[in-house]
Amino acid sequence: MLPYQKYLQEILIDEDTLQHRIAELGRLISADYYNSQNLLLICILKGGVMFLVDLTRHITVPHEIDFLAVSSYGKGARESTGKVRIDMDLNTEITGRDVLIVEDIIDSGETLRFVMDVMLARRPSSLRLCTLLNKPSRRRIDIPIDYIGFEIENKFVFGYGLDLDERFRNLPFIGVVNLEMLNE
Ligand code: IMP
Ligand code: MG
């Protein structure tokens, strides 16, 4: 038995389904930004990294990528604290650019509201949001999402960028966490 299997209740989205949808999102984004001269994808670290790397390969419009690291959780916590901070800022000026934020999951909305406000203050020419997963049942702050990979129920998930106490981001699928095993 592999170490992750102990925590896996079920596979929610398998690798094929993920990759198929990501290719579709890439096509949608390529069509929408057809005329863009300066598209910049901003990956929210660390959770968004797998999604960014796969998504960028399906976008046919020339674009750049950059990374923004934010944190909102205390170590080991599975609830947003509501206090978000920037751990690592962008290397790129975004003023006057078409910016697309690439995130793993939107839960309460606190993290993305903060990120969007910080980005808007820098005056991009457009700002949109792409998330792989959306958990609408847990939303506390309403934010408009332009591209959604999958809507999921209120379950704690891991894999494909999402961590379980910093581990298992490398799994190629999205799994539901068996919460009973976590408390052992
Ligand atoms: P929010 O601020 O509550 O929207 O939380 C967003 C962040 O919480 C995401 O970027 C994830 O890092 C983390 N998160 C939310 N739900 C989950 C989950 O089910 N598994 C792993 N991380 C999650
Ligand atoms: Mg995250």
Overview of this protein structure:
There is one protein chain. It is built from four helices and nine strands. The chain is of the alpha/beta class and about 180 residues long. It has a single domain (about 15-70, about 80-155), classed as Rossmann fold. A six-stranded mixed sheet has the order 4-3-2-5-6-7, with helices on both faces. The protein has a three-stranded antiparallel sheet with strand order 1-9-8. α3 links the parallel β5 and β6. α1 crosses α2. The protein is globular and about 50 Å long. It starts with 7 loop residues before the first strand and ends with a helix. The mean pLDDT is about 95. Magnesium ion binds near residues 44 and 104.
List keywords for this structure.
184 residues; alpha/beta; Rossmann fold; six-stranded mixed beta sheet; 4 helices; 22% helix; globular; binds inosinic acid; binds magnesium ion
> End-to-end span in angstroms?
17 Å
Overall geometry comes to: globular
- Taking strands numbered 1, 2, ... along the chain, how are they ordered across the largest sheet? 4-3-2-5-6-7
Query: Helices and strands: which structural class?
Result: alpha/beta
In DSSP terms (H or I, runs of 4 or more residues), the helix count works out at 4
Task: Tell me which ligands are bound.
Answer: inosinic acid, magnesium ion
CATH topology: Rossmann fold
| H/E element sequence | EHEHEEEHEEEEH
Number of domains: 1
What's the CATH C level? Alpha Beta
- Main β-sheet, in a few words? 6 strands, mixed
CATH architecture label name: 3-Layer(aba) Sandwich
- Could you tell me the number of beta strands? 9
Portion in beta strands: 25-35%
Overall average residue pLDDT: 94
Rg calculated over all Cα atoms: 16 Å
* Poorly predicted tracts of residues: none
Helix content: 10-25%
